[in-house]
Amino acid sequence: MALWHYRSLGGLARISWVTWSIALLTSAIWCFTAYQVALAMGAHTMYAIMTNIVQNAISVQDNENNALATVLITYGAKDNSLILQGQYWRFVTPIFLHVNLLHVGLNMLNFVVLGVFLERLFGHMRFLLIYLITGIISIMASCMFMPQDISVGASGAIFGLVGAYSVFVLVHRHAFRNGGALALLWLVFIIGLNLGIGVFIANVDNYAHVGGLLAGFLFGWCFTPLYKPLASSFRAENTTFVDTHSLARRWPLALVMVVGTLALAIFVVYHMGR
Questions:
Q1: Catalytic residue (one of 142, 155, 166, 246)
Q2: CA-based Rg of the chain, rounded to a whole angstrom?
Q3: Which domains does the chain carry?
Q4: Which of 103, 172, 209, 245 is catalytic?
Q5: How confident is the prediction for the chain on average, in pLDDT?
Q6: Is 209 an active-site residue?
Q7: pLDDT, tens digit, 9 for 90 and up, residues 121-143
Q8: Between the N and C ends of the chain, which has fewer C-beta atoms within 10 Å?
């Protein structure tokens, strides 16, 4: 029903424009910050700037760590000390910042592959809500459990999408082959693999990943598409189905979720300042 509803739409409504907009915006922001880092390292020609970006594409050179950290902090990286000074937008901006080409490339590849499909299932506004709120909660988790680290990246929000999709598969498992067992096992493998990488590779914020994943489970449970037939149409020739979890029907719950996220942010700030 979710895919049928998507196919029945026309024009811009049928395009996963939220996914593409976020991916393009995030990529553009990385291009800008990479340019700023190159300038900070003394690169002033286009060739020198491109050389600097390529040299740091996979791993950041030791002599560039300070310049990179300065640029990322300037443009909104998670920094607990600055959040405590009132810069609360740093709960949001880290989602759109990335360290290097490998970091932004892998994150945006995963995001687009998953996002285009999920946006079709969930709809534009539900998808955007889940992405942003789970991303913000992932940054809060990082603030709580890795207070000393500077953190950036969309991976926490992407884990949130994975969590929401896992709930979708679980709720609709009877519509999948083998009761959804293969799909769920694949998701468990992907989640375990990515969390395992975070254990063995330095500077990977697994607390943000877990925070985003758990938030994705919660939001997925509350807002996963759930189509049910209208009672008045049971005897009709063509039964009418409605999504009982749509934002139009569950906007009070969405409002509670947003207010709850704000309350959680206040608690995190209070805890950090103790």
A1: 155
A2: 21
A3: 2-273 (1.20.1540.10)
A4: 209
A5: 89
A6: yes
A7: 999 999 999 999 999 999 999 99
A8: C
